[in-house]
Amino acid sequence: MNSHELNQELLRRREQVRQGEGMDAAARQHAKGKLTARERIDRLLDRGSFQEVDPYIVHRHSAFGIDERRVPGDSVVVGLGRIMGRKVAIAAQDFTIIGGSFSEAHAQKVCKVLDLAISSGIPFIFLNDSVGARIQEGVWSLAGYAELFWRNSQASGVIPQISIMLGPCAGGSVYSPGLTDFVIMTEGISHMFITGPEVIKTVTGEEVDLETLGGAHTHASISGVAHLVAADEDEAFAITRRLLSYLPSNNAAPPARLPPDDDPTRADPVLDTLVPLEDTQSYDIREAIVRIFDLGSFFEVHARFAPNAVVGFARLHGEVVGVIANQPAWLAGVLDIDASDKIARFVRFCDAFHIPLITFVDCPGFMPGTVQEHGGIIRHGAKIVYAYSEATVPKVCVITRKAYGGAYIVMSSKQIRTDLVYAWPTAEIAVMGAEGAVNILYRKQLAEAEHPEEVRAQFIAEYRERFGSPYSAAASGHVDDVILPSETRARLIAALDFLRDKQAPSLPKKHGCMPL
Ligand code: HXC
Question: What is each CA distance from 496 to 315, 321, 355, 408, in whole angstroms?
């Protein structure tokens, strides 16, 4: 062959790879309401930025007729590209080729780009749409999964890893998304489960449909597996772009800073009356958050899971921060098992990637009851204190109202090495609420009193006088200052500026044993 023919041969092969299983297979994918792997890559990445890797790989197995289905590139498309100019490594499972089944070659390709992502310090994005382990390859498929899971674990805390769920993800394959930092599910087309409805029915007799078992709503609001939910594929890609804008490319680079576009001294007067004086009344802490941080910058994650806590990213004078808050508008902001997991995980992610933590506290304590105790609230709640204690990024806390008991301690208290703790004038810092405390402290007096209700009211008033304001905690230095709510933005910006070069020594150890 001459040079021209050689080049033509390459172009012919390239077109063959692009066609994959052909128009019919693409049409079948479209009929399921799904895009093809290449269409997805085209929509997610900046135009023309995709550099494909391993398009000619074919599998080498033959059992059960699989040798008849040897397609260049096998069942996944991988490579490097850019999203809003940011470099990423990407893998998109191709359901049109043997159901996107996970083969030895599939694993080899995904692992290759994940290795490139780790060594180049760029985020890894995995578009999932697969029936799971390729049955015909037996242990080779399982070993491929193990290779991927090992890499996901190695990459954790080194580069951000994002899983976008765009189809089925069944069996052990759920553990790759489960090991990544963020899972984005797409309503209606994505399902995640360890065992499907058929197996469940056979083993336990329970009948459940696919959506109830492992759809987006289930994982976003009940299991907590999904951090973000999209109505369709385009929204999933839009969410990915927004999420990525808050993340650094790796743990050695700072998060992307934007030129500030909001007045750093902006003092929002609404904040000064946002917290109701009657402590049984609620308010939405997100209203405070959106008014304090750069306008339009708050990006909540894990919103549907444990709504009694709020976590998300925001910007302060252009700098990325992680925001954690109790949510008084949901179960009075109480801490339970799910809220503990949600907070601890977010704190650890931010710490791993040098994102400072800003915490807002209004919490009556941990949720009482056998459901929580038997579910292990002790070990789950311990994760919060562990995560904050371990975190070495700048940490600033604002107590807006109740900081009672364990909640005071675990929610970024001064003593677990929060750099600066501020309190609003509405803050109440105490071992517990007034009613409960009086019942314990004065049980005898109340039992013997002629008019117990009057005596109780008097004791409660005394207790509130003592602990119903932030000044006794400020008098002992347990909070660093009492600030006007409308001053919060300016104070947080100043605090982060001073804490920018914070050094936090830690004891030499291999790793700690985080409560689980
Ligand atoms: C090889 C498979 C396959 C598999 C399906 N196919 N599962 N090929 N290995 N595991 C093939 C089908 O024969 C079909 O081939 C193509 O993939 C698409 O599958 P369909 O069933 O036609 O698609 P659909 O109707 O959309 O249903 C999708 C599905 C269903 C709901 C996901 O396929 C399903 O329930 N599959 C089983 C899912 C599962 O239990 N996976 C776990 C496997 S165990 P053609 O020739 O028609 O294109 C596992 C362990 C991993 O993953 C452990 C890791 C540690």
Answer: 11, 9, 11, 22
